[in-house]
Specification:
97 residues
C-alpha cells in the first residue's frame, strides 16, 4: 500500500463521528440510514462509512472503493450536505403504534 493511502486510512474514523451533527440537522439517528455507493454499488449504513473529519467539513467514503458518498460543510450561514456519491439514502419507517 502506498504511504499516502496509509496516511488516509490513519486519518479516517467511522461514520459515527458525525452522528451528532447529522442528528441535529435531520432530527433522527442518521447512522442507521442505509445507502448504496454510486461507485461500486456496495450497501452500508451511514455509521459504517469511513469518515474523514480533519478538514473544513466531513467526507464519508465507501469502505470498499473509497468513493465520497456524503460531503458535509458548515458555513456561518448554512450547512451543506452533498450526497452525489450515493445511489440512494434509505430511511426506514418507524413501526406503527
Amino acid at each position: 500500500m502506498p504511504a499516502e493511502q496509509d496516511m488516509n486510512q490513519v486519518l479516517m474514523v467511522d461514520g459515527n463521528a458525525v452522528a451528532g451533527g447529522l442528528q441535529q440537522r435531520f432530527g433522527r439517528d442518521m447512522t442507521i440510514v442505509g445507502t448504496r455507493c454510486a461507485g461500486c454499488a456496495r450497501s452500508a449504513e451511514i455509521g459504517a462509512l469511513m469518515a474523514f473529519v480533519r478538514g473544513p467539513g466531513a467526507v464519508l467514503r465507501c469502505p470498499a472503493c473509497q468513493t465520497a458518498i456524503v460531503r458535509i460543510v458548515e458555513t456561518p450561514a448554512a450547512q451543506y450536505v452533498d450526497v452525489r456519491g450515493a445511489a440512494y439514502l434509505r430511511f426506514r419507517r418507524s413501526p406503527s403504534r
